Amino acid sequence: QVQLVESGGGLVQAGGSLRLSCATSGIVFSINPMGWYRQAPGKQRELVAGITGGGSTNYADFVKGRFTISRDNAKGTLYLQMNGLKPEDTAVYYCNAVRGGINFWGKGTLVTVSS
Fold it and tell me: For the chain, which ranges sit under pLDDT 70?
């Protein structure tokens, strides 16, 4: 059974930083593509950043230069380092893993950025 558990969200002032973590189980962490998505109130869920099993990364334009996705294969954990946070980054952030063509999701962690 695949389980993804996010942590690290919270309230931060604009310009601040947070690091999100996603602990995983039930997947071969080192080979599965993974990513971070977010969903703001009243908006659709959108991709923030993705990383392949080989470590290649991609970012949404709105976070390039501010956010960094990384993975620790030994720990089976995915990270999102978020710097220079803006009020428009306020959202629930979700961890995603793809296994066998199926998307798996965590329950999300709330990030609130105050102005």
Answer: none
